[in-house]
Input
Amino acid sequence: MRAGTLVALLCCLTFAWTSFGGENLLLNPAFEDVASADCGVPCWKTSGGQFSLASGDGRNGTKAMKWDAATDPQKRRSVLSQRVRVKPGRHYRFEVWIRTEGLSCGEHGATAWVDWCDEKGKYLGETYLFGVRGKDSDWRKVEGVTSRLPPNAAFAVFMAGVDSGTGGVACFDDCRLCEVVDTPVPLLVSDCYRDVAWDGRVTFSVALDLKAAGLDAGKVRGVFSYRAADGSVKCISAATLSAARATISLPVEGLATGRNDVTFLLYGPDGREAGKASIAFTRLTSPPGWCVAIDRHRRVVVDGKPFFPLGLYNGGLSKGQVEKFWKGSPFNCIMPYSMPAPEEIDFAYANGLMAMVSLKDAFAGAPHCPKEIASEADEERFVTDAVAKFKDKPGLLAWYVNDEADIGKATRLAARRNLLERLDPHHPTWGVIYQIEDARGYVRTADVQGSDPYPIPGDIGKCLSDSLAMNAGSMGTRAVWQVPQIFDWCMYHKPSRPGERAPTENEMRNMSWQAIAGGANGLIYYSYHCLWAMRAKDPFEKRWAECCKVADEIRRHFPILLSDPAIVRFGKGVPKKLGWRAWAHEGDTYGLFVNASREQIAASLSPDIAVEGAVHVFGNGAVTASRGLLAVDLPPLGVVIVKMRGRTGNVDRR
Output
């Protein structure tokens, strides 16, 4: 991911929800009410450079707030802001209209963003938009949707302005901030890749938001309907239903062949319909023969064999880098930001590397959008041409479709995923977010999900919690490829912030295994080009050797990591910072335990399988078995894999 950017794309695009509605929480949003205030307009505050109220410069000849670099020789970051009270757990839409004259600016342009904080004003998060960046522009709307606000959020601060160093003029008008009302039934998914199956069972899961809708799980009813194999329409009550989820599991052979809708209906206490969601599910009579796909255990399958993506982001895919550094390394794939030439994909594949192709910027109006894209029609032509170039390449692993776009772009991202499935059914799409609290909202935007916590020098345990959250967000229905940090934040923060540094070898090892313990079946590190760029501070040869050592340790355990999952459960007493996962391999149960903290962890765990012994396989921790209990002793950032002797755990053979 492009590190250091808690930002979203310019969202002059369609949104996942309906159009703006409801109360505008901002007072005096069009700057028409004039009274004494620090910027001459009530309800608004300014910081940095000078804003002025400009009559006749607004949309339709009305008033506007005008920022002019000529009035601020220091070219400070200049912000127009208003704070409002908000509700935790909700999304908020925001927008502003902007016009520029002779604007010279950095990456963000003249833009808008929203911060949120707790009752005491402590910063909790933000959604930042790429704004208007052209030298001169007519009025353009910059709009977005915040992440879901955390439980302790109390206030949001709407802001519009320019970054430091900006020149020219920017006018702002018609600001808006309003609550998004979520449906009580926002999502229905299946646990089959691309909602396609030919045998076995399928579980349909529904995400519910009953609390926000004021509904009690004990007083509602959920019903699934589908077309059965005999052509009739079946209606069956949900097997499980809670305030957050409803499920049902069905034999695939009981469903009608072909593509048919599966629908979930939620009925309220009064018996009336309170919410509804549908998906199109396809039953085939034989496997489709995909080149690259995702299996029932969320593993990647390449040409029929399980594959664990272990790769790196980089600026490009040059033959020189492949030949000098990546060939013969433990890594098996590369995610280049720039679109490679077809022959570069071929060369990488001949040297043991698969590659992704990025289409994340192929949206009209996006900051790094190719020049040939000026409309949605141009987008489709560009994507269609790219697919034609690469889809038949044996070295193509996946299409990269999302790099931290805000949740408001979910509808466009989902449409892009659908287009790529139609153009190239043989390769999955992958998208990465930092908006963990909205993981559920991104499920339909990519076949494979991922997040990029980048915690160093902060709370390293975020790698485990993020990975778990990504799996929970999709209700266990999507593969997860996580993005561990190998870069130094100093590369992006100028000046650097206190304590910023590159992760140590042990931290990189720990973050990697945290992600795996949380459910990741692929790791793509960010990033190779950062290692090279920071070589004056940290010698490249040393950092590269450390990265390769960590990757090699993971690669040596591919036979375990690519085995079927073992179903092992522990009772109470599992420490919050202890990550764990189990596999069934060659008749034995293998357990991974990771200390996601900088403190010693000692715990006694009670597994639901009979364990008579634990044999150390890898790592620097200790796990011993006695009288049906597992004693886990891990040093700070410790990692251990053990083979558990005795009756093995049940194998998940869905």
Notes: Residues 563 and 645 are 17 Å apart (CA to CA). The chain has a mean pLDDT of 92. The first helix runs from residue 319 to 326. The chain has nine helices and 40 strands.
